[in-house]
Design goal:
The protein has helices spanning about 5-55, 60-65, 75-85, 90-105, 115-130, 130-140; strands at about 150, 155. The protein is mostly helical and about 160 residues long. It has two domains: about 5-55; about 65-155, no CATH class. A two-stranded antiparallel ribbon has the order 1-2. Helix 3 (about 75-85) packs antiparallel against helix 6 (about 130-140).
């Protein structure tokens, strides 16, 4: 064997070693990720069992049995979601107008003083636009709030 053949053979071994090290590092990274995931999952199940041991529901069926359905129309959640659907954001023109008013004075209104008339007018229009949503919220506050969501055959509150 000549010296060039020995030198080529050593270089070939080094390349294989670096390639192997890369594969080993990749395998270690994957194994670490799997171990962390397993640990988190085990901790999750420990916490779920602690909640169950304290007498609280942990499944959809247990939760459904935990809270009875309110009578039809007497669930504040329906009124709140309905009001949210009817809510109108502050129009951009009103928002700009409020910014101009506040920038003009250079300071926010004093909370101990009545609002300036121009700010009151903008806010009054906003409240009028949302009167129906506010009425629904006012009506819904007389009932208990129970959110129930149907998910894959079980009810979650």
């Amino acid at each position: 064997m000549g010296s060039s053949e020995i030198h080529t053979s050593e270089r070939h071994r080094r390349k294989l070693r670096l390639w192997h090290i890369g594969i080993v590092l990749l395998c270690l990274a994957v194994a670490s990720a799997l171990l962390i995931r397993w640990h988190w999952r085990a901790q999750f199940h420990v916490r779920i069992e602690a909640i169950r041991a304290a007498g609280f529901p942990v499944t959809g069926k247990e939760l459904d049995a935990w809270y009875p359905w309110p009578p039809s129309g007497q669930n504040a959640a329906y009124w709140i979601t309905g009001a949210a659907a009817l809510h109108h954001k502050l129009r951009q023109e009103y928002s700009r107008h409020l910014e101009q008013i506040l920038n003009r004075s250079g300071a926010r209104p004093d909370p101990n003083q009545p609002l300036p008339e121009d700010i009151g007018n903008v806010l009054e229009r906003y409240v009028q636009e949302n009167a129906e949503a506010l009425e629904m919220l006012h009506y819904g506050e007389t009932y208990d709030l129970v959110f129930k969501i149907e998910r894959s055959g079980s009810t979650v509150q």
